[in-house]
Amino acid sequence: MSDELGALRAKLATEIPVTLHLGLEVIGHDAGGLTLAAPLSKNVNHQGTAFAGSVNAVATLAGWGWVWLTLRRSGLEGQVVLQDSTIQYLRPIETDFTATCLPAEDAEVERLLAGMTRRRRGRVTLRVEIRSRATLVATFRGRYVALVAASAD
Amino acid sequence: MSDELGALRAKLATEIPVTLHLGLEVIGHDAGGLTLAAPLSKNVNHQGTAFAGSVNAVATLAGWGWVWLTLRRSGLEGQVVLQDSTIQYLRPIETDFTATCLPAEDAEVERLLAGMTRRRRGRVTLRVEIRSRATLVATFRGRYVALVAASAD
Prior knowledge:
six-stranded antiparallel β-sheet; 4 helices; Thiol Ester Dehydrase, Chain A; 36% helix; alpha+beta; homodimer; 36% strand
């Protein structure tokens, strides 16, 4: 577990440099999902609350990381891209915040992996919950596409 | 025109610091809408294309800036917040990119301003087009809420 989270941390830090400016942290990955966190200080807006664009970015990465880890656990390697997403900002975020990508249901994971192995392309829709302390402050839904890489990556 | 774009530039740079890391630029504001731009180099992802979270952030700010300028032109001052948004990523973005917030229709602008003056709160739904050179590469729709500030800001 620690190894795979370390690999995700390294992947994000080296391959999506803007994540360093978000202060992004990988917190944990368990049956409850993959949780990332970001500090308010680096993502603050004109009102002293979290900038919507930063909240969306952290949610986008939680979903992306969840797919990446799911492929990795299955010995698959591929490119993961976001096809579309929707986000609701429920209330101002006045603290550091987390984004937890909830696990897809088993049948959806099977469909994703089967797509990757049979058609070199799989899809999955994921829900991400953004919290400020215990309070749900935003919800995100993203459709991700995973593609078998043309060459080893 | 130049004065108001300068004011928007200053507002974004000083009050949403993460925009500096996006390399955000305010390009122009005319009958075609408000256009922001960002370089690929600062927003690159693991595939050498633009990170979805950065694209969403620039689109979010194009809509935000359009509302801010519209209020300012009407002598109104307020807080502008994004309530919800949806984005479709149509194709990989392999160059610097722009986000143009299309102007709302006159009736919608009137409703926004009337809400601000009568109920201290107005709403508007905006469409933002993201382009890589001339090609439409993503579309964004956001619902913004403008609130009369409790005190001068």
